[in-house]
Amino acid sequence: MTGNAPSRLRLLLQVFLPFAFAYFLSYIFRGVNAVIFPYLERDIGITAADLGLLTSAFFLFFALIQPLQGVALDRYGPRRVQAVLLVVAALGSALFGFCTSLPELVVARVLIGIGFAGGLMAAIKVFTLWYPPSRWGLVTGFHMMAGGAGSMAATWPVQWSLSLMSWQGLFFWLSGICLATAALIFSVVPERPAAGQPGSLREQFRVTGIVLTDGFYWRIQPLLAVQQLAFIGCISLWIGPWLRDAGGIADAGARADIQLYTTAATAVGFGASGLLSGWSRRIGVSDFACAGITSLLFALVCGWLAFAPPGNPLIPWMLFGFLGACPIQYMPVMVASFPPAYAGRVSTSSNLLVFLVIFAGQWAMGKIVDLWPRTATGYAPDGYAWAFGALFILQLGGLAWLLASRGRPMAAPYPAAAD
After folding, report:
1. Where are the alpha helices (DSSP H) in 213-342?
2. Which of 91, 106, 127, 355 has its CA 20 to 30 A from that of 303?
3. Burial class, 48, CB count within 10 angstroms (exposed 0-12 / middle 13-18 / buried 19+)
4. 288 and 256 in contact (C-beta within 8 Å)?
5. Are 298 and 395 in contact (CB under 8 A)?
């Protein structure tokens, strides 16, 4: 930062917290279907396949808007872009509450996905404007921690709220909270234009092409994409069925407890990831190397769940949540490897591939599990072994590519981006 830099307290109140609360909301919307689906079955008549379609619609359109969003973030700034997107999320949430059919639910879910497409990307952009590069990893980790808290809020707090109101009323309330958050960001977050001229829209999109063909981007992106598939795909969907069918946890309440502890470990992992990168840098280990170490450990936990399911799955799943949160530090490493004016397009280009892989990968995991005949209580444990084993092997392949590739940062990076 240059010039009259605001105090840390002002940055916390006017920059960090408004964007963190928006990210908190996005994780509530990601996980809320896991709680309200019995009500949707009762009132709308949706099936399990329909529920999968709703989940996929969120991630697919979340991914497809990323290139346009990256240009908008760099051209118009994160304050305005995030405020507009949250209005779209509010519209989608209100529409969800009025829905009486599956097509209407899908349209509403698409609007919600578009509205929260900037939850992380807009924050990373605003961090590059207001924080020095050496702090990007730390603030990104704490921002992700807000998402982990949102995952926790999407469990028993949502279930408790349904004892006070209908699921439609819940979405009306969430719509109002989205609108209030949009107004807060637009009115409170200070404006800081990026250095240099933004150029024409054609030039802005040309930069997206530069990012998508960069060697250092493709050095990191395959590992990050499959790691996020394993992490987000399992946290948002497959942990529950795995606990029932492969973990032997027949009681729904006991499964919910393990899921809650796992999301709590995720929230701690997000916060710790930034601290861990700072500590490792002090002893001469770059953020690039630190993220690689945590990625390897996370892959090993996936292998543990695949090939040697434990009698008590609480510990491995908490490790899954904690370690799966840490490799997000690759994101600030990638952003730091490009010129600062590219920050929005770098982060959204990364998100584009990550969420397309999640969209396809969640479907593929279901196809693998379905290859084995169903049991009396659910799906065959062998199906999970192969699905989770595939995640383990893909991550090892991504790590091997990371080590073998010679892609170098485009910009002169701060120490966190060196290897």
Report:
1. 215-233, 239-245, 252-282, 287-307, 314-325, 330-336
2. 355
3. exposed
4. no
5. yes
**What does R_g of the chain's alpha carbons equal in angstroms?**
21
How far is Cα 409 from Cα 413, in angstroms, rounded to an integer?
7
- Residue 355: alpha-carbon gap to chain centroid: 9
What's the token pair of residue 31? 């996980």
Lowest average pLDDT, out of 55-59, 94-98, 213-217, goes to 55-59
From first CA to last CA, the distance across the chain in angstroms is: 25
Residue with tokens 């060196």: 418
HSE-CB of 387 using CA atoms within 13 angstroms: 27
CA distance 108 to 91: 8
What is the identity of the amino acid at 4?
N
User: Which of 235, 256, 252 minimizes the C-alpha distance to 302?
Assistant: 235
Contact indicator for 179, 93 with CB cutoff of 8 Å: no
Between 290 and 238, residue with greater pLDDT: 290
Mean pLDDT calculated for residue range 262-270: 89
Check pLDDT > 70 for residue 4.
no
The token duo for 4 is 């009259």
For Cα atoms 157, 113, 232, give the angle at the middle one, nearest 5 degrees: 65
Burial of residue 327, with CB atoms counted within 10 A of its CB: 0-12 exposed, 13-18 middle, 19 or more buried:
buried
Domains defined along the chain, listed by start? 10-188+200-417 (1.20.1250.20)
Rounded Cα gap, residues 16 and 130, in angstroms: 10
Calculate the CA 164 to chain-centre distance.
29
